[in-house]
């Protein structure tokens, strides 16, 4: 655990207030730039738009996500594949 047990998990209070103001089953996105905030049981069932540096990625929170951080579900890098001559040759033969 990266944070002291006596301090407890980091939860953004403004984000928590916005979630509590919504009705259960509301489909609207809550935009946030706070990727370090820990997912709590109050967030389950809501869609949170987590910023990945370019745009807000919608993250639908389910029970298995509790205890993880919001940033874990919004990747910041796009994987394009491994390069090299061999990979290029395989790609061209696969197209034929």
From TrEMBL:
GO MF: rRNA binding; structural constituent of ribosome
Gene Ontology CC: cytoplasm; small ribosomal subunit
Domain of life, per lineage: Bacteria
Database matches in SUPFAM superfamilies: Ribosomal protein S19
Presence of keyword Metal-binding: no
Function: Protein S19 forms a complex with S13 that binds strongly to the 16S ribosomal RNA.
Family: Belongs to the universal ribosomal protein uS19 family.
Name under which the protein is recorded: Small ribosomal subunit protein uS19
Lineage: Bacteria, Candidatus Falkowiibacteriota
């Amino acid at each position: 655990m990266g944070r002291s047990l006596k301090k407890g998990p980091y939860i953004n209070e403004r984000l928590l207030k916005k979630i509590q103001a919504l009705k259960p089953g509301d489909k609207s996105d809550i935009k946030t730039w706070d990727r370090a905030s820990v997912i709590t049981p109050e967030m389950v069932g809501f869609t949170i738009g987590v910023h990945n540096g370019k745009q807000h990625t919608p993250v639908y929170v389910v029970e298995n996500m509790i205890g993880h951080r919001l940033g874990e579900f919004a990747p910041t890098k796009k994987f394009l594949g491994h390069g090299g001559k061999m990979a290029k040759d395989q790609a061209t033969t696969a197209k034929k």
